[in-house]
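Notes from the 1:1 (GR / supervisor)

We went over the backlog. Supervisor wanted to see one worked example end to end before approving the batch request, so GR pasted a single chain during the call. The sequence is below; no edits were made to it. Supervisor asked that the structure be written out right there so they could see what the output format looks like.
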Amino acid sequence: MAAKHEHGPDDKALERELDALRKEYERLREERVRNEQNLENLTRQLAELEARAQAEYGTSDPEALEKLLAERRAENARLVEEYKRHVQDIQAGLAALEKAAEGQA
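Structure output shown during the call:
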């Protein structure tokens, strides 16, 4: 007579564990694929941004770009202050004209 193979309690536990491990492996594999795709996309985006920075600012070096940004912010602050003084001079000139006009009236 052929021996009948029955699964014992240990076999069932091993099957459940193997099934859980297969599911975890599949989840990790899918996650790896997603991460590789994300890496490819981010690498492409970085290359595009570096090319754009090189074209627009003459460099793609982050430190050089930060220095350039600081220089441009300082220049903007200087221009705003200069414009502010110009507007104040115009206001002072108008006030003087109004005062002179009131004195003649």
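Supervisor's comment: The CA atoms of residues 41 and 101 lie 69 Å apart.
Batch request approved.
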